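Protein chain data
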Amino acid sequence: MANQNDAVLEALSLAIAVRIPILLWGPPGAGKSSAVTAMCESAGFPYEVVIASIREPSDFSGLPVVGEEGVTFAPPRWATRLAESSSGVLFLDEISTAPPAVQAALLRVVLERVVGDLKLPDDIAIVAAANPPDQAADGWDLSAPLANRFCHLDWQVDTSALTSGLVAGFPVPVVPEVGRDWTRQIPLAASQVGGFLSVRQSFAIQPPTDRSLAGRAWPSPRTWEMVCKLMAAADSVQASLEAKRNLIIGCLGEGVGLEFLTWLQESDLPDPEAALRDPKSVVFPDRGDRL
């Protein structure tokens, strides 16, 4: 029997492979941090675990240092180690217990990979983990701008996987090898996104109006671009439909994500106007539910 988190791990590994920031949500003690670190170790990625809740804004925006040429913002040691590695994973743990000032300092880190005056290499992947605010120690809701920089995945506690893992050992997560030509799939994904948004223009951007949803996924031009890249990567390795579903909903939110997935499923249906004009030119589907 498949583990509930198999598709989540598959989606997580794809996001890491193409360097899309990813955020794992789940209750405390569910194994999120262990899964991320195990994946990094199995892939041989250098990684730095930074507990966001015990950091100050200067740990991300840099510590002001007065020098002969003016003020510079010195990065912390973990950032310089990542920069020296040239590739790897920055794992921001307990991000939902970081106060608003720290979350604000993280905005540039997550989006631009800039820590103080140090630009991290583009090959650094960013992964975060969070507990729902009502389950976190002194938890805070994620700000909408920070939430919009991530693809959000929900980590489940699978009892059967837990029992088998305790007895026989937990499987090692694997990061897929996404070929260099995966970017060739982006124009196709972008055309699908463009086709959908041409008929559902209000979905191009929908900032959350409900405060309880502000810290989760919501559609914006940024997250639609993330969807294009993740769809392309998923198609290039023939990822499972469930993993692809997790990635799309993780970028757009459940409502818009499900509607886009339905549109993708039905986008190959015949154009009704074309069918009326020239019925012989249309190849109708065999399935009755798609007529």
DSSP finds twelve helices and nine strands in the chain. The chain has one domain: 6-269.
